[in-house]
Amino acid sequence: MSAEAITVLRGGPGSGRDRARGPLIGGTWLYFALLILLPVVWMLKEAAAQGPALFLRQLSRPEALHAFGLTALLTIGAVVLNTCFGVVVAVVLVRQRFRGRSLLNALVDLPFALSPVIAGYMLILLFGQGGWLAPGVERLGLKVAFALPGMLLATVFVTLPFVIREVGPVLAAVGREQDEAAYTLGAGRLYTFWRITLPSIKWGLLYGVTLTIARAIGEFGAVLVISGNIIGRTQTATLLIHQACVDFDPNAAFAAAAVLALVSFLVLIASEIIRTRAEVAGESGASTSVARAASPARRGRAGEAACPTGDTRPATGPHTDTGSGPDEGTPSTHHD
Predict the structure, then answer these.
(1) Alpha helices of 96-197 — where are they, by DSSP H?
(2) Tens-place pLDDT, residues 230-264
(3) How many Cα atoms within 13 Å fall on the side-chain side of residue 204?
(4) pTM higher than 0.85, yes or no?
(5) CA distances from 258 to 217, 241, 322 (A)
(6) Which of 103, 146, 176, 187 has the fewest beta carbons closer than 10 A?
């Protein structure tokens, strides 16, 4: 077979795959521009067109300041709760085997499959007037529906999967060898988690936290239902934008939307930085694992690390008995 034919089969220059590459990339950019870039650019253009004085006056209104403060409070609450409980759930799902584990694992993704409006309605059924749990919380002197606790529950619900789904795969990849070694040396579970497990999952955890922040800032449906959208009391930033649109006040809507877009861009940049560092840390971890896997071979111990061809048969004979490795001049018994 000629070199040109091989190049075509491998997708080299001039191949059909190469000719289709340009239209595919162009179509992707066009799709991305129509759905993402064009609306965002148009919104920022309209926000800038009203001038800095009107822009700041819209944002300095008492109801706007209260809405942004309430959004920040809900975001912080959701991040704290989902970080703590998300790590616990991820550890349980990855490292424990129990009846109902698959069902629990599937339920984690329920907020992704369920409309936020339905989530808000479920909270109304539980904590609203005549709700199943309403008598209990009323006896405790708490008000959940149309109040801050209900809004926090709704925000935590819609952001529940992010930390779990980012930390879980990292935990599965890290394994339990280092934890078991720490237990063998006498370390307690809390100390082992703090010094061994948490550093291993920190980049995945931070990426899950940034996704939680982005989702909590932009949450609308569930919070709209459970909060009642009371101006100056239970109105978040997204509800403020909705109210401005209903009241035909585009300047207020553009100003609030521009602030949320700016925060979202910052969160996006932070998430990309974290993801890049996580990939670098993953490659470093892989290199460390390779070096650790190669150590037994250097020491001449038995095992698959001394079999470069991937032969996983237990090494026997002179190679395992002498205690010396290839670096020390001892020939390997595997040549296939």
Answers:
(1) 101-107, 110-113, 116-127, 134-139, 148-158, 160-174, 177-184, 189-192
(2) 888 999 999 999 999 999 988 899 999 999 988 98
(3) 23
(4) no
(5) 13, 10, 71
(6) 103
